From TrEMBL:
Pathway: Purine metabolism; IMP biosynthesis via de novo pathway; N(2)-formyl-N(1)-(5-phospho-D-ribosyl)glycinamide from N(1)-(5-phospho-D-ribosyl)glycinamide (10-formyl THF route): step 1/1. The record marks D145 as: Raises pKa of active site His. Catalyzes the transfer of a formyl group from 10-formyltetrahydrofolate to 5-phospho-ribosyl-glycinamide (GAR), producing 5-phospho-ribosyl-N-formylglycinamide (FGAR) and tetrahydrofolate. The lineage of its organism: Bacteria, Bacillati, Bacillota, Bacilli, Bacillales. One of its GO terms (molecular function) is phosphoribosylglycinamide formyltransferase activity. The keyword Transferase applies. This is Phosphoribosylglycinamide formyltransferase. The keyword Transferase applies. InterPro entries: Formyl_transf_N (IPR002376), Formyl_transf_N_sf (IPR036477), GART (IPR004607), GART_AS (IPR001555). It is an enzyme of class 2 (transferase). The gene is purN.
Length: 186
């Protein structure tokens, strides 16, 4: 069983999908810790329901990004976490975490990268009137949504309907992340 930590800043629907796939025996992993930079995020409630410990650390309470990530690193080391799974964690990962977890950090992004990196990828796609967007799972490097791609799936945009498009993307995310984690976590 592979020990993982899930990092999230928001609702946590991907966290929940991963945890439920683990509960069904579909991913050979254990979520040792949820890490969030947003103590009020809904993912904290979802983690409580699943009895998974949460490290809620506000970057503003630290003198530097290095100090913030060192605090996270010591939590990860306490739980002997082997892989970091980003699920809506809206910050760049710095060298303090990249170095000890080289090639062991995975992210999911709601577009067909390299299109629409960064924030609000779904809004960017709607603004460009693209007809097809999608979901990408990739390894994390120092760039913004730039690491080697593990898996991608296309999603047809529902014309002018952001909410419907977003729902379709989330449904694909939950499936694609599971498949990608099944293949990569060792
Ligand atoms: C997901 O759509 C994820 O792909 C996106 O944040 C959302 C989190 O949803 N991540 C990024 O945009 C990263 N650049 P969730 O909190 O319900 O899992």
């Amino acid at each position: 069983i592979v020990s993982i930590a899930v990092f999230a800043s928001g609702s946590g629907s991907n966290f929940q999908a991963i945890q439920e796939a683990i509960e069904r025996g579909e991913i050979n992993a254990k979520i040792e810790l949820v890490v969030t930079d947003k103590p009020g995020a809904y993912v904290v409630e979802r983690a409580k329901v699943k009895n998974i410990p949460v490290a809620a650390l506000s970057p503003k309470n630290f003198d530097s990004k290095v100090a913030y990530e060192q605090a996270i690193l010591s939590k990860l080391q306490e739980c002997e976490v082997k892989w970091i799974v980003l699920a809506g964690y809206m910050r760049l990962i710095g060298n303090t975490l990249l170095d000890p977890y080289a090639s062991k950090i995975i992210n999911i992004h709601p577009s067909l990268l390299p299109s629409f990196p960064g924030k609000d990828a779904i809004g960017q796609a709607m603004d460009h009137r693209v007809k097809v967007t999608g979901v990408t799972v990739h390894y994390v490097d120092a760039g913004m949504d730039t690491g080697p791609i593990i898996a991608q799936r296309a999603v047809t945009v529902v014309d002018g309907d952001r909410e419907a498009t977003e729902q379709a993307i989330h449904a694909i995310e939950h499936e694609l992340y599971k498949e990608a984690l099944q293949k990569t976590l060792t």
